[in-house]
Amino acid sequence: MPAQSKSTDNQLRRQLLKKTAATKATASPFGSPYSSRAQSRNVSDDEDFDDNASVDSWALDMNTTGMEQLGLGDKGANSQDSADGSGLSSSTPEGSVIRLKDALEVLSEKRVSIRLAALNTIVNVLAHNYLPDELDDIKVSILDSLKRCLKKPKQEKEAILAIQGIAIWFVIFGDGEESMYNDVRPALEDLVSNSKSVATRAQAMNALAISNFIAVEDFNNSIKIVKLIEAALTPPKTPDGRRSSIATDPRMLTQALSSFGFMLTLVGQINPGMVKDLFATCFERHLQLLESDSLSVRMASAQNLAFIHDHLTENRAGLGYMKQERLINTLQDMLRDSNKKVKQKDRAQQRSILRDVIRTMTNNDPPLLKLKFRNKIVSFDHWTQILRVYTFRDTLGTGFHTHFMFNPLVQAIFGVSLDIPHESEVMTTERVVVDPGSELAKARTLDMKHKREKRRLEKQNMIFGNEDDDDL
């Protein structure tokens, strides 16, 4: 290796080590309570994602893009560091691409601290930038590198960052990439089922759900993921009548509830009648989790119940097992709960969320979530879209506003088309109401149906074709 190249590599490694050491913290990525996630589920409040405002004000505990929680620094998309020494600001597309490529080069280093810093950079660049064209020639290398980090991670943080990078990769490049999904699926499924780390299991479940949602055309494949999540939500009891500590951990339960509701929004688009049957198997479990000690578990369960009520009512499927009167009484008792052992802030959050849920069940009155993107205020008034917002925010963290403004796939999923002007051109605020029945949302759903039908016919032709060959 030429001396100059070796010197450059050593300089880059020293910079990565210095940056990691300077920002290292002792906090666990999932160590803090879930109150901030529950707060993020308060859909009655407007949320401002103006580029000029701080985007850290709605940081989520379950948002594993929270670099501060991971203790890895790199505070966000506005960082002006230039880790490559090129002099290019890291906030420019060119600077971001160089940072990502440099990080990929050192991702195979033996020293864990270097790999962590590199993974942090990769995740940060992918989350806070939308650069599909600039990264197209290395997109496969990015995914392969992240997948390799899952084989034998030395630390929990390494696995969590790699999984998160995989999830964001699919948000950028994953539309229709079912072969790529099938490539990473076994590793993610294994982590969901067998990892000894609760945080790793939860992150893998989120990545599995969002990558399946985006990339998979085979509907049966999506149902398998729903069943996998359901198994985590309702794990079998041991002979003494208990469940494992991982199965009952609030972090795992919150993620399982979130991913279950999120995947049902996909099933509801393709086969509305199947949602009722899938939810029936864990309806009682949702009722049990309304009594959880964890605020975020209680609220995730309540909002899934609101979604299924909304779905069944909209599709005139009959409420049946919902046991409406019993359910509403339970929610109203929770609303009146004045348990002094629960923090006043948590009680206030719970009441706000429960009011939305109860209004849905009693008056078919949906909640209203508003997000602001420069001069656009986007309003969501359907539980399907609101549950999707939660999952994409959990995946992208503070990069959510970037992808909502500039990623066509994200806009298509939410059925909205935004023409974001330059900051200097912003004069007035325009309001946009997101409707899952919008033309854009319908077009994506129809396109996915056509692709699935095409795959079904191809498989059918292959089977019949083989039978004809045998006859010959």
Automatic annotation (TrEMBL):
Region called Disordered, residue ranges: 1-54, 69-94
Annotated Polar residues bias: 1-10, 33-42, 77-94
Matching InterPro entries: ARM-like, ARM-type_fold, IFRD, Interferon-rel_develop_reg_N
Pfam families per record: IFRD
Gene3D superfamilies assigned: Leucine-rich Repeat Variant
Domain named Interferon-related developmental regulator N-terminal: residues: 95-360
Biased segments, Low complexity type: 18-27
Coiled-coil segments: none
Lineage top rank: taxon: Eukaryota
Assigned protein family: Belongs to the IFRD family.
The protein's name in its UniProt record: Interferon- developmental regulator 1
